[in-house]
Automatic annotation (TrEMBL):
Residues 370-421 are annotated as: Disordered. Residues 1-29 form the DEAD-box RNA helicase Q domain. InterPro entries: DEAD/DEAH_box_helicase_dom (IPR011545), DEAD/DEAH_RhlB (IPR044742), DEAD_box_RNA_helicase (IPR050079), Helicase_ATP-bd (IPR014001), Helicase_C-like (IPR001650), P-loop_NTPase (IPR027417), RNA_helicase_DEAD_Q_motif (IPR014014). One of its GO terms (molecular function) is hydrolase activity. It comes from the Bacteria. Belongs to the DEAD box helicase family. This is ATP-dependent RNA helicase RhlE.
Length: 421
């Protein structure tokens, strides 16, 4: 099957061909026909499977065929994403798909000047891509009107739940017209997703290409059982074996990953870090230099790294295992993209055996052991007194896990949803 057979407008098929996109992926083949017929869609697929085109192409096709212009401050279609990086990636893709048409795409995310975003929305837009926190800011300022929005997409919905955006989504839902088409895409199905789907979807068709928790087949996974204090040296040794290839290193905390990136730089690696404490400009520059090969090792937290689509990433290192087991699949899904092969290496300290058990339960498979042997289960550490004691967080430094939450549950903090995403 090709895109012509899916019923897309010829100009849209031509725009895809110019980008070298000719064959739809499985999620696109399943989702696009239902979306073209106006059905609400719940799509389950891992990262890197072409979800942006799965919701973007039918939405653009219907906008092109219906004609019309948005009113002041209005958005005909709204796409919500959990992180700045993913939102920008989506906006870039939608802009490429609509090249040469009258459709206008606007991106609004935290970390960028809000006044400029307000100005760009004065005359409205066809496609608005936003993070929930910044969208709430603009709604509070009456800079955006959602009363005429025809299409709504929630991308990486499970991550939005993990980051505590459920409250923002509850505020946004009543502002949208009931007579709209909604598409929800997610890599996993936490329990709270049912509440989300009931609030946003109507008589939705469910499409699924990979079982939740299943990693891409072309990823060569392995795990090293190593003491926390020895992680940095082992990572250096592993990275040294492929200095000319791109590698992503994931950890849990902003402070820890910043410290680790500086340690790698001191050892001669072209390394950079992205996390929630970095400005939007710093994050975009690091990703651009990583994509161009000027930076070979990108050190990241889960919050900053969701949505990275860089085909040349050959290696992913889990320097610290994630607190949310599904995030392991998201992390290693940054490699083996576009049909390429990739390697995913995890480093497991004794106090991370609980995380490993949860990950392997979600994946329904054990990760092959590269060195060491499984640690005996460790009882939860007591909070250290003034005398010190080991802190969780790995050799890269301690700190509070960025975006940490239990699967399917938002962070229970008595504060407004994050605005930095």
């Amino acid at each position: 099957m090709d895109f012509d057979m899916l019923g897309l407008a010829p100009r849209l098929v031509s725009a895809l061909a110019e980008q070298g996109i000719t064959d739809p992926t499985p999620i696109q083949t399943q989702a696009i026909p239902h979306a073209m017929n106006g059905r609400d869609v719940m799509g389950l697929a891992q990262t890197g499977t072409g979800k942006t085109a799965a919701f973007g192409l039918p939405m653009i096709d219907r906008l092109l065929k219906s004609g019309g212009k948005p009113g002041p401050r209005a958005a005909r279609a709204l796409v919500l994403a959990p992180t700045r990086e993913l939102a920008k990636q989506i906006a870039d893709n939608l802009t490429a798909y609509t090249q040469g048409s009258h459709l206008k795409t606007v991106l609004v995310v935290g970390g960028a000047g809000i006044n400029g975003q307000i100005k760009r929305m004065e005359n409205g837009c066809s496609l608005l891509v936003a993070t929930p926190g910044r969208l709430i800011d603009l709604l509070d300022r009456r800079a955006i009107d959602l009363s005429k929005t025809e299409f709504l997409v929630l991308d990486e919905a499970d991550q939005m739940l993990d980051l505590g955006f459920i409250h923002a989504l509850r505020r946004i839902a009543p502002l949208l017209p009931k007579d709209r088409q909604t598409m929800l895409f997610s890599a996993t199905m936490p329990k709270q997703m049912e509440e989300l789907s009931k609030a946003f979807l109507t008589d939705a068709v469910r499409v699924q290409v990979n079982p939740p928790g299943k990693a891409a087949d072309k990823i060569d996974q392995s795990i090293h059982f190593v003491a926390k204090a020895a992680k940095s040296d082992l990572l250096t040794e592993l990275l040294d074996a492929h200095r000319d290839e791109l590698a992503l290193v994931f950890g849990r905390t902003k402070h820890g990953m910043e410290k680790l990136s500086r340690q790698l730089q001191a050892k001669g690696f072209a390394a950079a870090a992205i996390h929630g404490n970095k400005s939007q400009g710093q994050r975009e520059r690091a990703i651009r230099e990583f994509r161009e090969g000027k930076v070979r090792v990108l050190v990241a937290t889960d919050v900053a790294a969701r949505g990275l689509d860089i085909p040349d990433v050959r290696h992913v290192y889990n320097y610290e295992l994630p607190n949310v087991p599904e995030n392991y699949v998201h992390r290693i899904g940054r490699t083996a993209r576009a049909g390429a092969d990739g390697r995913a290496v995890a480093l497991c300290a004794p106090d991370e055996m609980g995380e490993l058990k949860d990950i392997e339960k979600v994946m329904k498979a054990a990760i092959p052991v590269a060195s060491g042997s499984r640690w005996d289960p460790v009882a939860p550490e007591k909070k250290p007194g003034r005398g010190g004691g080991n802190r969780r967080g790995g050799g890269g430094g301690g700190g509070k896990p960025e975006g940490a939450a239990k699967p399917g549950r938002p962070n229970r903090r008595r504060r407004a949803p994050r605005k930095a995403a």
